[in-house]
Amino acid sequence: MHEGMGMSGQNAHGYALVMAGGSGLRFWPKSRRSRPKQLLRITGGQTMIEQTLDRISPLFAPEHILIVTNSEYANAVRELCPAVPSENVIGEPFGRDTWACVGLAAAWVRARDPEGVIGVVSADHVIHNRDGFAACFHDILALVAQRDCLMTIGVTPEHPATGYGYIQIGDRLTSTPGQTRFHEVLRFHEKPTQSEAEGYLASGDFLWNAGTFAWSCASIWAAMEAHTPELFQAAVRFEHAFAAGASQDALDEVLKEEYGRLDKRPVDKAIMQPANNVVMARADFDWDDVGAFPSLDKHFPHDEQGNLVQDVIFAQVDCKDCIVLGESSETDPLLIGGIGLEGMMIVRTPDAILVCPKDRAQDIKKLADQIGRKPGLERWT
Predict the structure, then answer these.
(1) Which of 73, 347, 361, 371 has the greatest number of C-beta atoms within 10 Å?
(2) How far apart, in whole angstroms, are the C-alpha atoms of residue 133 and residue 361?
(3) Omega into 229 within 30° of 0, i.e. cis?
(4) pLDDT of 313-334, one tens digit each?
(5) How far apart are CA 110 and CA 118, in angstroms?
């Protein structure tokens, strides 16, 4: 039996994994491979990873927070997150999607506290209702401490999005008196077509997959052994390294060897989908993964023509529903002029300019990848 949460809201056995390894190239040219989305001030005065830590800090002690990022970003993350012990920031040698860092975190917690429960959050999501998030996560951590289950969070869809995964929900759990947020999960559905997404929305049985999870150390360890033996073998070696107090150089060598044997897989597909003990918590807070520039529309005010303008002077004639972003200052202002534009994006940084229809925003990553493959243009990605 786990101890309950104290007055601070922190669980003595609670640990957090902050996944901070993505490149976020759909925000090019603001995001670069050396300056990913989670290290940018996308939706406010703080970087996205700083916002994430502020959101989870009432729930987890700083020494119980593990940040897994790309090795190239590790030092930058340590500078942005001084409250988290520097050794709790681990750089992955290769990007292996979310399943690898989940295995790494399970090993890290298991070496410290086999009774631990783990909350898994992304460093690049936006949640304004922090109290609602904290209350939901409090309930989730309490449930996974008592029940052998893998927990995910579902968000009520606002529109038939094709860029999100969906969760088909089943009956409410009957074994959690007083709790109405928990449901059985029937199945996961990957990014749908437009017609499928419209059907999901109309049915009322589907929620957006928020990519946020929780489980006990024992439950995720058993799930890896059952469904991903190659990841389980890597996690066993990670645990041995952590338990032995391996030096940073020794740990880096183990990570390089084991990550080299793993392929890229999201934890949803690798572990959650084949598992039969998945439970979903219905979110009663706002959530946005801010996947591309048009996501900013719902986080900032607009002018009378519906244009979102930031850090730039926008002189326009007959322009509406545009996003115009710069990086100017009061001492070095930038003027952008537009005529007859509708539903367009203009993003200007000191060394690059993007011009793109808002409805093609998902192709920005394709453009950034293409630029990165051209000899001589690598500096722009």
Answers:
(1) 73
(2) 29
(3) no
(4) 999 999 999 999 998 666 788 8
(5) 10
Q: Strand, coil or helix: what is 114?
A: coil
CA–CA separation, 241 vs 224, rounded Å?
A: 18
The C-alpha atoms of residue 250 and residue 328 are separated, in whole angstroms, by: 44
Dihedral sign computed on CA atoms, order 251, 254, 260, 266: negative
Can you list the positions of beta strands (E) in 80-165? Answer: 89-92, 117-122, 150-155
- Which two three-digit tokens encode residue 161? 């999005």
SS3 216: strand
Contacts of 203 (CB under 8 A, 6+ apart): none
Given a cut of 80, is residue 61 above it in pLDDT?
yes
Separation of alpha carbons 320 and 341, rounded Å: 6
**Of 312, 309, 345, which is closest to residue 326 (Cα–Cα)?**
312
CATH class of the region 14-282: alpha beta
Residue 7 has pLDDT above 50, yes or no: no
Preceding omega of 375 cis (within 30 degrees of 0) = no
Domain ranges of the chain: 14-282, 293-380
- CA 189 – CA 299 distance, rounded (Å): 27
pTM listed for this prediction:
0.92
What burial letters (b/e) apply to 338-350, b meaning 16+ CB within 10 Å?
beebeebbbbbbe
Residue type, 259: Y
d(CA 123, CA 175): 32
